[in-house]
Design a protein that fits this description.
The protein has 13 helices and ten strands. It is an alpha+beta fold and 336 residues long. Helix 6 packs across helix 11. The N and C termini lie far apart (84 Å). Bound molecules: 3,4-dihydroxyphenylalanine.
């Protein structure tokens, strides 16, 4: 009888070693540990054991049962709880749950605005040009008729990359007017271009100012270009971009690279009543600029403008604080 217990333990160990999945383990459990399993039967052998050996048999049988139970538990946890028993295993996903719609990415509102602006000016016949964000003083100031002592060149108003008193200082461009010079240096008139991009100024951040923002620059050079061409172009742009009822006005101003010069204002209303907001500058290209790029100012005339893209977008989408455009809070950006 004692030998039969050893045999049973042996068989059980071999069977368990051959188990490879939850279903086989369950069969093993039924065969050895189940209510009609081998271990239960083993306990019934005791009635055939002589009285003086019953105690020894009982101890051995108990030890055998514990050994097989422990081996089974061990194997079960190795296989993982989900597969240990077909009764207990649950599907990991509920296929009857309604699905979550995938969240679509989108272009930043400034990129969308740039696309729209290029499209509006494209319809008016303007080609697209680009220029570098790091510039030399020549393209950012000198060729634009901004002399050495002009306050616009103050180191406190620009992000110089090298000592401004050094020989050829570089800076982060403070305006996209630089692209006017770069295009005219390489092309003969007639010219009709727009250029968008980032510009940098160490401004205090508030609702309408930021130290980095975007501009759209326009340049039109041909024979007999007049101020009324400029005015018509900007008015048509305003009506195409914001709608035919938009109120805009040109206010006389001064820029070194245009003569005469003006500022473009647009009527805004962020809920505190209507107010005029300046969105950029414009004017007739100054003869000194034509001379800097080797154009004959007697022959060529032109207009130019530079508008702040954030401000254009703020008016279009009713955004009252420029800082929201750069905080990249998806709850804000997702609205557009
Ligand atoms: N560059 C000017 C600025 O950033 C804006 C500007 C004014 C651009 C007049 C022009 C212009 O092209 O003609 O303040």
């Amino acid at each position: 009888m004692m030998n039969k217990i050893d045999e049973l333990v042996n068989d059980a160990e071999q069977d368990l070693a051959a188990v490879s999945d939850g279903a086989e383990l369950e069969q093993f459990r039924i065969k050895y540990l189940g209510t009609k399993g081998s271990l239960k039967q083993m306990m019934s052998w005791i009635k055939d054991i002589p009285g003086d050996q019953k105690r020894e048999f009982g101890q051995k049988a108990n030890a055998a049962r514990q050994q097989i139970q422990a081996a089974f538990d061990n194997r079960k946890s190795n296989l993982g709880s989900g597969t240990s028993s077909s009764k207990k295993s649950k599907p990991l996903i509920d296929v009857t749950e309604p699905g979550l719609p995938p969240r679509m990415g989108r272009k930043h509102i400034i990129s969308q605005t740039i696309d729209e602006l290029l499209e509006v000016f494209g319809r008016m016949g303007f080609d697209v040009e680009t220029g570098p964000e790091t510039e030399d003083e020549y393209h950012n100031f000198v060729a634009l008729n901004i002399p050495e002592q002009h306050p616009a060149r103050d180191p406190l108003d620009n992000f110089y990359l090298t000592d401004p008193n050094g020989k050829n200082p570089y800076l982060m461009r403070s305006q996209t007017s630089t692209v006017q010079i770069r295009v005219m240096e390489e092309t003969e008139p007639p010219i009709r271009i727009v250029s968008t991009g980032r510009v940098y100024r160490p401004d205090e951040h508030d609702a309408t100012h930021y130290s980095m923002f975007h501009q759209i620059e326009g340049l039109y050079v041909d024979k007999n270009v007049s101020m009324s061409d400029l005015k018509t172009t900007l008015l048509q742009f305003a009506h195409a971009y914001w709608g035919p009822d938009t109120e805009v006005k040109l206010v006389p101003s001064y820029f070194p690279f245009t003569e005469p010069s003006a500022e473009l204002y647009i009527k805004m209303d962020f809920g505190k009543g209507p107010e005029w907001m300046e969105v950029g500058g414009c004017g007739m290209v100054d003869p000194a600029v034509f001379e800097a790029v080797g154009y004959d100012p007697e022959k060529w005339t032109g207009f130019a403008f530079g508008l702040g893209i954030e401000r254009l977008a703020m008016r279009k989408y009713n955004i009252s604080d420029i800082r929201w455009l750069f905080e990249n809070d998806v709850r804000f950006l997702r609205q557009f």
